[in-house]
Design a protein that fits this description.
This is Isoprenyl transferase. Its EC number is 2.5.1.-. It is an enzyme of class 2 (transferase). InterPro entries: UPP_synth-like (IPR001441), UPP_synth-like_CS (IPR018520), UPP_synth-like_sf (IPR036424). Homodimer. With about 240 residues, this protein is of the alpha/beta class. It has one domain: Decaprenyl diphosphate synthase-like (Undecaprenyl pyrophosphate synthetase, 3-Layer(aba) Sandwich). It is about 45% helix and about 15% strand. It is built from seven helices and six strands. α4 links the parallel β3 and β4. α2 runs parallel beside α3. It binds 3-methylbut-3-enyl trihydrogen diphosphate (2 copies) and magnesium ion.
Length: about 240
């Protein structure tokens, strides 16, 4: 089987999954975070090199105060656990998104997570937290414009590759496969630039129930696709 080098996941459906069990939405998030630890190991076992997961979007601040607080609390404990699991499983963790809106202590833990795992050589695990693709592109343009004003970059030298190097995903190849759980058929502001030629896989399975078997199903489907990049079949 051809294993995608980079899999990106929109882990959706925590709230609905919890509701279906008569539990509060935040219980779904707790179980979703547990599942993430499992999927990292599964992804690595399967041979995936890069796994990029959407934890919190720039739009998710619109949720109730209670839910946002619960999520932030969860990210705190998840980050601490991840420092340990990254060490045990040799994962190199990167963070995508704008951290400045997060609480100082969470920013510090995330920095520690990235710093302490930077020399690891196993799974490249990328956490998109307070991430929005439009926000990422605007931040990139702001920095690029500044570099033009400062004379470090000439406008005529701007290429796709140079622009990509200003995005949060610099050093990370584009995803081969995007998975969204729980039935919604949209991108919700995720990796708009990077997903230009990725294959998409949507499943009804809610994130807390998504397991290795479901991941293998997605990869099997991916294997049945013919990637074209604008060319003609067979060439
Ligand atoms: C995904 O689950 C996790 C986050 C967006 C933080 P949801 O919370 O979106 O769950 P549903 O989609 O409402 O069921
Ligand atoms: C996208 O899921 C964001 C994350 C998974 C973190 P949402 O549940 O927030 O997206 P919408 O609101 O259904 O588009
Ligand atoms: Mg959702």
């Amino acid at each position: 089987m051809n294993i995608p080098q980079h899999v990106a996941i929109i882990l959706d459906g925590n709230g609905r999954w919890a509701k279906s069990k008569g539990m509060p939405r935040n219980y779904g998030h707790v179980r979703g975070a547990k599942n993430l630890e499992k999927i990292c190991r599964d992804a690595y076992d399967i041979g995936i090199k890069y796994l990029t997961v959407y934890l919190f979007s720039t739009e998710n601040w619109k949720r109730s105060r209670e839910e946002v607080d619960g999520l932030m609390k969860l990210f705190r404990s998840y980050t601490k656990t991840c420092i340990k699991t990254a060490r045990e499983n040799n994962m190199k963790v990167r963070v995508l998104g704008d951290p400045t809106a997060l609480a100082d202590d969470l920013q510090e833990s995330l920095k520690e997570l990235v710093e302490s795992s930077k020399n690891n050589t196993g799974l490249n695990f990328n956490l998109a937290i307070n991430y929005g693709s439009r926000d990422e592109i605007v931040r990139a343009i702001r920095q690029l414009s500044q570099d033009c004003v400062d004379g470090a970059v000439k406008p005529e030298d701007i290429t796709e590759d140079l622009f990509s190097a200003y995005l949060d995903t610099r050093e990370i190849p584009d995803p081969d496969l995007l998975i969204r759980t729980s039935g919604e058929l949209r991108l919700s502001n995720y990796l708009l630039w990077q997903l230009a030629y990725s294959e998409f896989y949507f499943t009804e399975v809610p994130w807390p129930a998504f397991n290795k078997e479901e991941l293998l199903k997605a990869i099997e489907k991916y294997n049945g696709r013919e990637r074209r990049y604008g060319g003609v079949k067979g060439e």
